[in-house]
Amino acid sequence: MLRLKTEQTNHVQVDKPSARLSLAFIIVAFASLSVGALAGMLQGMVRGGVIHLPSWINYYQILTAHGVLLGLVFTTYFIVGFLFSGMARTNGGSLTKTALRFGWTGFYTMLIGTLMAAFEIIRNNASVLYTFYAPLKAEPAFYIGSALLVVGSWLAGYGMIANYVAWKKNHKGQRSPLFAYMAIATVALWQVATTPLAIEVLFQLIPWSMGWVPTVNVILSRTLFWFFGHPLVYFWLMPAYIGWYVCVPRIIGGKIFSDALSRVAFVLLLLFSIPVGFHHQLMEPGISPAWKMIHVALTLIVVLPSLMTAFSMFATFETTGRAKGGRGLYGWFKHLPWTDVRFFAPFIGMLFFIPAGTGGIINASNQLNAVVHNTIWVTGHFHITVGAAVALTFYGIAYWLVPHLTGRTLTKKANRVAMVQIVFWSVGMFIMSTAMHYLGLQGVPRRTDYTDYMNNAEALSWIPWQRVMGFGGGLLFVSAVLLIGVLIYLGKFAPKGNEEYPIGETDGEQYTPAILERWPVWLSVLAVLIILAYAMPIMEQIQHAPPGSPPLRTW
Ligand code: HAS
User: Fold this and answer.
1) Residue 555 in domain
2) C-alpha to C-alpha distances, 45 to 39, 257, 440, nearest whole angstrom
3) Distance between CA atoms of residues 415 and 396, nearest Å
4) How confident is the model at residue 154 (pLDDT cuts 50, 70, 90)?
């Protein structure tokens, strides 16, 4: 009976209007990825001393383009597209009219914002990197564009909430589909996290860049930025976790380990990923050590849901492998579908996340942070978190999502090329990030153009490793070209058919406490945690504001 139910629900197709909306977001996501990957390769080559940029383009300009296009644009568009598709898929195949309306308004708002910001980057008027840290100052259009990008993503989020509310109305007393639940947790996190960013941009950066106020309170602007900046990384991670918890079990022919555990993990991510921003500011003056310690303690708590995820994934893999005949301690391992890119890509992402998460815990401890902060170690850390664990999972998803949305199929040949793409990405990322971690421990700064520091012997000894980094970056670019090629094939030329949208199910009926879905409770706890972690230090930063800084243009 249960099996029959699984197969029936897995034949649900996302309908045309919903598919069009998701595809619009996904197309912009991968268009940004192609330009961002090119910028990444160029800066890797420059940093390795292999090439020199022509005089009309500057290193910090392509570094900004790379960070903004990959870290902010690719991720946000992909996530919104993926979440909309899953909301539709678990709602019988369609989004409500309200969700579609909000979705399209959000899409165009985001697009206008993205184009405005990109225009200023191209004009070299906004080489302020993806963190746009004051007192570096961009042209106002860059900040206005960024604000529109965020507002557009809010509108899209409201569309998802509208869809969820409609589902709840039609299914009174029922537990919502796991995908929808997780999507709503992600949207809630994004809404709360981006509010202080909007405050920073609207009330600090735009008036300052317009010249309406002469100076900016730098420490306050950075605190507001990291209020957003840390949950941003979980905004990237949570959709990847949706892929792991909800889609991967179905792909490997197994079951979701525990519905309740999966929801608890998402509640914990929502609660604890926000009040931790000071772990990015451990080396900054102007914040008392006591507040930093509280944020570090909360940071160590937010590791928990990731450990729960690791446990849950292991459990799913082992029980599935054993159900397929795997014997002994490790026999189950070879029964996993290693040649299916829909599984292989996220699995390699999971492997990357083991050292990546360990590196995160290293970063979070005050003394070790003093060693690695502002070195290229941190760049290594975020390339194996977002650039590997998250990106590989997104690629694995795109390989079934794009043909599903376009009514085509993932052919064996495309699957083979996609496997090669994943191998290139993994090897390139492994080489590049290992070199970055190693160089970081030697004290090599992040975000620096090629320099030998006037023939300094120590700096000269870094250059061979910087070449290794550049080589890894080259492999990543080749991989990105393959990725785009396969996605174009899957979207336009692959044979017509019904590619499955994999949604896993639990093994039989499982008890899930109703409180997990009482959002007002969790949002209230979140508000208390935020007040506890941020109210006092922010007040201190306003009341005892250091002298403000005039704008700087260092490029
Ligand atoms: Fe981080 C800096 C601490 C996770 C991204 N991080 C960054 C920056 C980015 C970033 C972009 O405390 C740079 C920002 C900038 O430009 O300045 N990070 C952490 C901690 C975690 C963490 C404690 N980071 C992430 C994730 C990211 C990300 C996730 C993106 C997606 N990070 C820091 C700190 C800094 C920082 C400091 C500031 C450094 C500085 O000084 O500037 C944790 O949440 C990590 C927990 C994760 C784990 C791993 C669990 C493993 C799993 C895989 C299981 C594998 C399986 C495979 C199942 C504990 C879930 C099965 C295997 C078989 C063999 C069968």
Assistant:
1) no
2) 10, 44, 18
3) 10
4) very high
Which stretches of 442-456 are DSSP H helices? none
Pocket lining for ligand 1, CB < 6 angstroms: 131, 233, 236-237, 279-280, 299, 302-303, 306-307, 309-310, 313-314, 317, 350-351, 353-354, 357, 360-361, 363-364, 369, 373, 378, 381-382, 385-386, 390
> In this structure, how many other beta carbons lie within 10 angstroms of the beta carbon of residue 294?
18
Q: How far apart are CA 255 and CA 110, in angstroms?
A: 37
Distance (Å, whole) CA 88 – CA 94: 4
Residue 7 placed within a domain: no
pLDDT at 458 over 50: yes
Ligand 1 atom closest to the CA of 276, numbered from 1 = 12
pLDDT at 468 over 80: yes
C-alpha span between 351 and 73 (Å, rounded): 25
The domain spanning residue 309 has which CATH number? 1.20.210.10
- Domains of the chain: total: 1
pTM here is: 0.96
98 against 12, higher pLDDT? 98
**Amino acid 509: pLDDT:** 79
Q: How many CB atoms within 10 Å of residue 545? A: 14
Structure confidence at residue 277 (pLDDT): 96
450 Cα–ligand 1 center, Å: 27
Centre of ligand 1 to C-alpha 235, Å, is 12
Q: Over 70: is that where the pLDDT of 2 sits?
A: no
Of 184, 233, 519, which is closest to residue 385 (Cα–Cα)?
A: 233
Q: Look at residue 148 and tell me if it is in a domain.
A: yes
Cα 51 to ligand 1 centroid, rounded to whole Å: 32
The reply to whether omega before 54 is within 30° of 0 (cis) is no
What is the pLDDT, as a whole number, of residue 10? 66
In a domain, residue 549? The reply is no
Q: Relative to the CA of 130, which ligand 1 atom is closest?
A: 16
> Residues with Cβ < 8 Å from 518, sequence gap 6 or more?
none
Catalytic (active-site) positions: 230, 234, 381-383, 446-447
- Domain extent at residue 466: 13-278+286-543
- Does the structure show a pLDDT above 80 at 3? no
